[in-house]
Specification:
By secondary structure, the chain is of the alpha+beta class. The chain contains nine helices and four strands; from the N terminus they run H-E-H-E-H-E-E-H-H-H-H-H-H. It has a four-stranded mixed β-sheet with strand order 2-1-3-4, with helices on one face. Helix 2 runs antiparallel to helix 9. The longest helix has about 30 residues. It is globular, with a radius of gyration of 22 Å. The N terminus is likely disordered.
Length: about 250
């Protein structure tokens, strides 16, 4: 009788052990494990792409070792930085020797590697494709047109260009259509596409660009601001955008 009880207990222990293994395997597959040391982020606070990466890290509870990189002083052109990133761009991350730049690629990587689940960047191919499309829309259209309008003003003191502003308005109209009937830009859940795009919109807002005619964009902007409040929206994103806008005022 004692032997039987021991066998039953042993079977139960084996079952519990395998359940534990499966749970841990599931957690790892979802990126639940944090890095062994803080990921270095080479950044500048006003930089919109840097702001997007920093908020993404906060959402997933990821510690960053922030390395201030003043591009105005050429700190991105040192031999050490060029060896790490020959394109000498920020943000750049160093995850224990794994070097990556381009903010949207960094955001995707961080969520894939360390996210608690796939809410921010779905594993479902079709859901992910929509998020990717929105990220590419921001990179190739919305943020690109924002930069085309304001970079000459910031860097060279050029006057406001109405034709370029019209291009931004056109992109905002497309975004307004994309959001129609959706809570967030890619569906019902906030994703990294929302983080990337709201950084662009916040920058436009800081420059007093009027997008109030685009009702869907305005309402989404309010919703996403609230959703990001616990993750450094004000101190990272709003403060960085205002700092960037202050450069224009100085010119």
């Amino acid at each position: 009788m004692k032997i039987k009880i021991m066998n039953v207990n042993l079977e139960e222990e084996i079952r519990i052990f395998w359940e534990y293994i499966k749970r841990n395997a599931a957690a790892k597959s979802k990126g639940g494990k944090m890095p062994s040391q803080a990921i270095k982020l080479y950044y500048l606070p006003p930089s919109p792409p840097c702001r997007a990466v920093m908020m993404t890290a906060k959402i997933i509870g990821l510690e960053l070792d922030l390395v201030l990189t003043n591009i105005m002083k050429g700190e991105h052109l040192t031999p050490e930085f060029l060896k790490m990133n020959p394109q000498h761009s920020i943000p750049t991350i160093d995850d224990s020797g794994f070097i990556l730049w381009e903010s949207r690629a960094i955001m995707s990587y961080l969520v894939n590697a360390y996210g608690r689940d796939d809410t921010l960047y779905p594993k479902n191919p079709r859901l992910r494709a929509v998020v990717d499309q929105r990220l590419q829309f921001d990179l190739g259209t919305l943020y690109s047109r924002y930069s085309a309008l304001y970079a000459p003003m910031l860097m060279r003191g050029e006057p406001y260009n109405e034709d370029l502003a019209a291009k931004v308005t056109e992109a905002l109209a497309w975004l307004n259509t994309l959001i129609e009937g959706k809570t967030f830009v890619a569906g019902d859940n906030m994703t990294i596409a929302d983080i990337s795009i709201i950084v662009t919109i916040t920058s436009l807002d800081a420059f007093n660009f009027d997008f109030s005619a685009h009702d869907n964009v305005s309402k989404w902007y309010e919703r996403t601001q609230k959703a990001l409040e616990p993750y450094g929206y004000e101190e990272i994103n709003t403060a960085g955008a205002q700092q960037l806008a202050s450069f224009l005022k100085k010119n």
